[in-house]
Automatic annotation (TrEMBL):
<keyword id="KW-0028">Amino-acid biosynthesis</keyword>
<keyword id="KW-0057">Aromatic amino acid biosynthesis</keyword>
<dbReference type="InterPro" id="IPR013785">
    <property type="entry name" value="Aldolase_TIM"/>
</dbReference>
<keyword id="KW-0413">Isomerase</keyword>
<comment type="similarity">
    <text>Belongs to the TrpF family.</text>
</comment>
<dbReference type="InterPro" id="IPR011060">
    <property type="entry name" value="RibuloseP-bd_barrel"/>
</dbReference>
<dbReference type="InterPro" id="IPR044643">
    <property type="entry name" value="TrpF_fam"/>
</dbReference>
<feature type="domain" description="N-(5'phosphoribosyl) anthranilate isomerase (PRAI)">
    <location>
        <begin position="4"/>
        <end position="196"/>
    </location>
</feature>
<comment type="pathway">
    <text>Amino-acid biosynthesis; L-tryptophan biosynthesis; L-tryptophan from chorismate: step 3/5.</text>
</comment>
<protein>
    <recommendedName>
        <fullName>N-(5'-phosphoribosyl)anthranilate isomerase</fullName>
        <ecNumber>5.3.1.24</ecNumber>
    </recommendedName>
</protein>
<dbReference type="InterPro" id="IPR001240">
    <property type="entry name" value="PRAI_dom"/>
</dbReference>
<dbReference type="GO" id="GO:0004640">
    <property type="term" value="F:phosphoribosylanthranilate isomerase activity"/>
</dbReference>
<dbReference type="GO" id="GO:0000162">
    <property type="term" value="P:L-tryptophan biosynthetic process"/>
</dbReference>
<dbReference type="Pfam" id="PF00697">
    <property type="entry name" value="PRAI"/>
</dbReference>
<keyword id="KW-0822">Tryptophan biosynthesis</keyword>
Amino acid sequence: MTLVKICGIKTLKDALAALNYGAWAIGEVFAPSRRRIEVEDAARINRYLGDRIVKVGVFVDEKVEEVAYIARTCKLDLVQLHGNESPEYVEELHYPVIKAWRVEKRLCREDVRKFKVWAYLFDTAAYGLKGGSGRTFDWNLIRDFYGSRDIILAGGLNAANVGEAIKRVKPLAVDVSSGVEQAGEKDAAKIKLFMEKVKEADRYVS
């Protein structure tokens, strides 16, 4: 079964839509972004959710101490690092990590697996952005990782293309943000449709 992470959650309403339609995780962005959430709001939402869904905090080149503080305050289950953090940074953090890679060229296993993390997320490289570009990348660039059960595929996924993504890449999870939005806001109907397409693809793959 392919797990689904709905990223860019800012409200309890959106978090509950993700939960109710079967998402594995929500992503809360604490880096500069139009999807940024305040620490107090994330803490309130996460207290309500409890352990019913995995909570992932997204950070970009933030100080280790600040990441650790927010992770504790918001009761995050995983920390997603979307910047230029080093393997040493990951070790110092002492927290389960998803390390994001902005894919511009073919990635080799040796470079990626220098990071001892819970999972690796592959996203579209976009000038001036650390994620959330709404564009896909050439999945052939990560073909060395096809079928790996520790990768998360992101980058421009939506209901129209997530099925093909799952069939080709066979990731542990898929990550979606703009693909389930309408006019820049999360849309429950799009979340529902996205989840349905993931389930359809899983039936094909299995």
